[in-house]
Specification:
Blueprint lengths: L1 H18 L47 E4 L6 H8 L3 H8 L12 E4 L8
Antiparallel strand pairs: 1-2
């Protein structure tokens, strides 16, 4: 118990010494000073933005390759014209054939494209 009593007396002595100082513990007063912020007097100009147009895709419709028929044994020009739905006159003119009966086996006949009248 003596130790406890000594501890209390010692603590009160230390606390009393700290609180009984005669010095002015208050922090010194500060004064506020306004510092002007300088703004640049240069005139700011915006750079114009040029918008480039997006390139558009060109729609290219390829020309269809010519249709070629190789004359087989037993073929006639009229039979070939009928199977492709082409007038015999147009078929002969396209291939430079003057006599419809003079075609040969293995001869390549170009079939002309007929555009639909519905379009």
């Amino acid at each position: 118990m003596k130790i406890f009593l000594c501890a209390i007396i010692g603590a009160s002595f230390i606390l009393g010494a700290c609180s009984s100082s005669d010095s002015n513990d208050a922090p010194p007063a500060t004064t506020e000073v306004e510092i002007p912020i300088e703004t640049p007097e240069e005139e700011v100009t915006e750079t114009p933005v040029v918008v480039e147009p997006t390139p558009t895709a060109e729609i290219v419709i390829p020309t269809p390759a010519p249709l070629i028929h190789t004359v087989q044994p037993g073929n006639s020009l009229s039979q070939i014209a009928q199977s492709y739905g082409v007038p015999i006159e147009l078929l002969a003119a396209e291939n430079g054939i003057e006599d419809y009966n003079l075609i040969q086996v293995g001869q390549e006949i170009v079939i002309p494209l007929i555009e639909d009248e519905e379009e």
